[in-house]
Amino acid sequence: MYKYFSTAYKFGGFAGALSILSFISLSFLYPDPTNLNLVFGYVITPIAIFLAIKFFKDYSNEGYLSFSEGMSVGFVAYMLEAIISLGGIWVILIIHPDLFEQVKESKLDVLATNKGSIVAQVGESSFDLTLESIRNMVPWDIALNDALWKIIPGLFFTIIISIILRKNPN
């Protein structure tokens, strides 16, 4: 079992750590680091998945890769990245409640600034529901959102990369 996941653990863990480092760095530069951290996740997730699957294929599996092996390795990589990122961001927001309040205020400001266009698109009741959910937001919500936006694209990228790198023995 270790053979299948040794590279996935390394690259998924490294990507998760980079995601936390990105969140910390962006929090010094922007009042709401969450959106840019998601963009960073869209870049680092496919790179981590690709490297995990490629290293598994080349160094652990003698140059061969089935689709299911690629999917398994990719799954471990993006899930580990998401779990590490979730835990790190949640702890950061718990330790620094002022950062959490700053993120929350930024989201409320964006909502207030764009109220007219949002109401025109989705209606007053949806706007009010969104406003209430942001007011009731807790640090866990921000961390979970970040993790989910690593898992969803991670699945997509894993499928594509597993198909591209697939090579079965003749």
UniProtKB/TrEMBL annotation:
TM spans (from-to): 12-30, 36-56, 76-95, 147-165
Name of the protein this chain belongs to: Uncharacterized protein DUF4199
Domain of life: Bacteria
InterPro entries associated with the record: DUF4199
Pfam families tied to this protein: DUF4199
Keywords annotated in UniProt: Membrane, Transmembrane, Transmembrane helix
